[in-house]
Amino acid sequence: MQFDTKFVIVVAEDLANWQKLNVVSFLSGGVTASPIVNTGDRYRDASGCEYLSLCVQPIVVLKATREKLATFIQRANREQSEVAVFIQDMFESGHDEANRETVSQYSTDALPLVGIAMCGEKKRVDKVFKGAKLHD
User: What is the residue range of 69's domain?
Assistant: First the structure.
């Protein structure tokens, strides 16, 4: 199936595995809540049990240095693209309100980014995240 949009999450390559998984899960939830992302119907197994719907398109997970993440946020803002961010401090903050508070303490160019996610038109997403590598 072909999609007009692309859903990408980029994580800092120097994070511990548990941190990468945490960043990817939070960012995917943030982007999936945006109106551009489609979720399908609920799943049902042969026994009749129902399960929540999932995002209908693949999510590409990439890696980059923290310096590159700073470049990506600048590009996204220049393109006026909506993105989800995860900063280092959020590993310690503990809940959503505290996460928003910690982000609000930084100017854009000082955000200690460890992850960025975006879903949008393919060319725009590729332009924003040019230089990121496929996560292994």
Answer: 5-134
